[in-house]
Structure formats: C-alpha cells, structure tokens
Design goal:
With about 220 residues, the chain is mainly α. The protein contains 6 helices and no strands. The longest helix is centred in the C-terminal third of the chain and has 123 residues, at about 90-210. The N and C termini lie far apart (about 170 Å).
Length: about 220
C-alpha cells in the first residue's frame, strides 16, 4: 500500500489536484457540499480513530470521504486505495475495536499475572523467615529429643542401679535376719571368752606377783 498523508493530500484544495474542469466533478455535488465534506473529514482526522468510532462519527466520516472521492478532490494515484479503504471501513472499524478489546483483555491478563507474580514474591518473602524459624524450631526439637533420649537412658540406668541396690539390701536384710540367732550365740560366746581372758590375765598377773620373792 502506498504511504500517504490524508490531511496534506486531501484538504489542501488545489484546483490542479481537483482537476478544476467541471467535467470531472459530479453534477449532483455542489461546491458547498464538497467544502462541508472536507471540513467534516478534517474534523474526523483531528480525532483519534477510537473517538471517531465511539462518538458515532463513522457514518459522517464515510459520507465525507465518499463525497471527496466522488468530487475528484483526491489525487488520481490515491482514488483506488481510498475507495478500497472506504469500502472496508465498517469491517475495519469492527476489527479495530475488537482488537482494542483484545488488547485490553490481554493487558488485563498480563496485569493479573503481574499481580500474581508480585503476590508470589510477597508470599516468598513471608515464607522464608517462617521456614527458617520452623527449621530452627525443628533443630531445637531434635536437640530436646536427643536430650530426652539421654535422660531416659540415664533414668533407666539409675533405675537399674536402684533395683540392684534394692535387691542387695533385701538380701543383706534377710542375711541379717537369718544370722540373728548366731549373733546372739556369738555374743554369749564372746562374753564368756572375754571373761575367760580377763580371768586368765588376772591369774597371770597374780602369778607374776607371787613368784617374785622366791625368784630373787
């Protein structure tokens, strides 16, 4: 498609471009109609396409362009191109507005994804400290469990020692009970033995005292 500037090429109103001979203009169009068409056309071009469509100016635009083309106000090399443009303008506008909506939807989805990514980053920043704290708590629990295991092992060992001592004490107590008659008898024998020892030592000392005179 040949590039062109509608404002520069369609509105300058040169008689040479309009082919000033009356034979090239439609007898149904007055100079005023052509002038008004150019003004309408210019007003439309001064707006952006979205505003033209939303403000309901598409029909005025098409009518004005049609008059301009019919009035031979368009350079010859643009007539076919503009005629084709005019012919497809309604459908082109529909595709244009549909495409605008598609863009809005796409941007909305992109924004939604962007929001989700932002939210994901926030969740990640919240997740990391909590995860680190959870790991720290896990380490503390593991340490406490290790200490508990050690304490249980120590308690079991102490319990075993207590049971051994209890058995030994019970055995010793029973031994004492069993030995009580022997102890009483032994005490009696000891008492008798002590008396015998005392008596014999007394006699011994007496013997030494009585023997001294005749040993001189």
């Amino acid at each position: 498609m040949v590039a062109f500037n509608w404002k520069d090429n369609l509105l300058e109103g040169k008689t040479s471009e309009a082919q000033s001979s009356d034979s090239f203009q439609s007898p149904l169009l007055s100079i005023e109609e052509i002038s008004n068409a150019k003004k309408t056309f210019k007003r439309c071009l001064d707006k952006n396409l979205t505003n033209v469509i939303k403000s309901g100016w598409t029909q005025e635009f098409m009518n004005s362009l049609s008059i301009i083309i019919t009035s031979n106000s368009v350079p010859g090399n643009l007539v076919e191109e503009l005629s084709w443009f005019l012919y497809n303008f309604d459908q082109s506008c529909e595709r244009y507005m549909a495409s605008k909506q598609d863009i809005v939807k796409a941007e909305g989805k992109e924004n939604s994804v962007g929001d989700l990514k932002t939210n994901l980053k926030q969740l990640y920043h919240q997740f990391m400290p909590i995860r680190n704290e959870a790991e720290s708590v896990d380490e503390e629990i593991a340490d406490l469990e290790r200490q508990l295991t050690e304490r249980k092992a120590k308690k079991a060992k102490l319990q075993s020692s207590l049971e051994d001592l209890t058995r030994q004490a019970a055995t010793s107590r029973q031994t004492v009970i069993n030995a009580e008659p022997d102890i009483k008898l032994n005490r009696l024998r000891k008492k008798q033995a002590e008396k015998t020892v005392v008596d014999m030592e007394r006699l011994w000392e007496s013997l030494k005292a009585n023997s001294s005179p005749f040993l001189l």
